Amino acid sequence: MQPAFLGDLDAVEAHAWFLLERGALDRRSAYHAPSIATLSPDGPQVRTVTLRHVDRTTGRLRFNADARGGLVQQLLADPRAAVHAYGAAEKTQLRLRVHATVHREDGVAVAAWQATNPSARRCYLVPPPGSPVDEPTSGLPMTLERRRPTEAESADGFVHFCVVELQVESFEWLHVHAIDKRRARFDRQGTGWRGSWRTP
Length: 200
Ligand SMILES: Cc1cc2nc3c(=O)[nH]c(=O)nc-3n(C[C@H](O)[C@H](O)[C@H](O)COP(=O)(O)O)c2cc1C
Fold this sequence. Notes:
Elements: H1 9-25, E1 35-40, E2 43-48, E3 53-55, E4 60-66, H2 70-77, E5 80-87, E6 92-103, H3 107-115, H4 118-121, H5 142-145, H6 151-154, E7 161-176, E8 181-189, E9 192-198
Antiparallel strand pairs: 1-2, 1-5, 3-4, 4-7, 5-6, 6-7, 7-8, 8-9
The structure holds flavin mononucleotide.
């Protein structure tokens, strides 16, 4: 039997959000680590992030980041961004046009920080991402290279930590089955989405 999304826009919309929601929950999902593209003075920049939370009712996604890095600095300068993920097993590409809000040292950041484990917090104990160095390094102090920081040690990272919230403005879903290729676009309209078919 053919999947409903081949002929039903509501099913396409549900499929896209299902893939994103599963991406946030399942680290083996191809949608767990999408790419986000930002605008920089040197042109577009793209990199991988880890999806932490997806809320289809609000159309929002979240990931954690180092507020000192180019990614966040670019989003602060221009909150327009694009997210991309492709699952080969699902044969489905998702492209999202988003507007980013950076949460730093607020309630959202505190709640997300409390949900991270000390090992993950090590990322925020290093010099700013992309800093030039004389020798190859993880950036971590030697004492933390091979062990988890204690709760107290990891607390120093909080000032660098932020949550990036992405409001999806529109998204495109592309299914690349050999015969039954389909493409659809969804634009945010009030609290819902206005879907339309496109040629693939
Ligand atoms: C699998 C994977 C997951 C990643 N997850 C994140 C993430 O959730 N947040 C983040 O800021 N960087 C993440 N990164 C690192 C970014 O891709 C990027 O290297 C980092 O944000 C620095 O980029 P920038 O110099 O543009 O700021 C991840 C990288 C990989 C390979």
